[in-house]
């Protein structure tokens, strides 16, 4: 189990391109999004077909724990256009979404959230990953 606040990240090349394009849109600015840009810059990029099954990619469904409270949650990481108001669909632009992208099962990360706090998230399981299901261009 990694306790490094900045664990290694694996991001699919396609996800990275789409997220970078999203970040270039007017109105997408702020400290949280700067951190997402930094994370993308340090990530190891892989072709979608080469993505390990235990990595959180876009449109993956994953279970994680917030260490301070011990609460567990399952979310699907989506693009902003796919957020439908349900609590289990989290935008890549939300702090939790940005924090989880590219992490593997067993990894944890510390991430700033609004209000000046920092949370620590631990990935417990990737229940569904598009790449593992053979969906490479979603």
Automatic annotation (TrEMBL):
Coiled coil segments of this chain: none
Regulator of nucleoside diphosphate kinase N-terminal domain mapped to chain residues: 7-44
Pfam families, per the entry: GreA_GreB, Rnk_N
Ranges of residues in domain Transcription elongation factor GreA/GreB C-terminal: 52-128
MF GO annotations: kinase activity
UniProtKB keywords: Kinase, Transferase
Listed NCBIfam families: PRK05753.1 (NF004396)
This protein's name: Nucleoside diphosphate kinase regulator
Originating organism: Cognatiluteimonas sedimenti
The organism's taxonomic lineage, starting at the top: Bacteria, Pseudomonadati, Pseudomonadota, Gammaproteobacteria, Lysobacterales
Encoding gene per record: rnk
């Amino acid at each position: 189990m990694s306790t490094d606040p900045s664990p290694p990240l694996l991001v699919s090349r396609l996800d990275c391109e789409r997220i970078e394009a999203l970040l270039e849109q007017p109105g997408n600015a702020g400290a949280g999004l700067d951190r997402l840009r930094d994370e993308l810059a340090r990530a190891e990029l892989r072709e979608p077909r080469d993505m390990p099954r235990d990595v959180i990619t876009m449109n993956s469904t994953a279970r994680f724990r917030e260490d301070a409270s011990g609460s567990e949650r399952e979310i699907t990481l989506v693009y902003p256009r796919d957020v439908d108001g349900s609590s289990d669909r989290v935008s890549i632009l939300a702090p939790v979404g940005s924090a989880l992208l590219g992490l593997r099962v067993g990894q944890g990360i510390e991430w700033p959230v609004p209000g000046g706090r920092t949370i620590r998230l631990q990935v417990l399981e990737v229940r569904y990953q598009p790449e593992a299901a053979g969906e490479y261009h979603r």
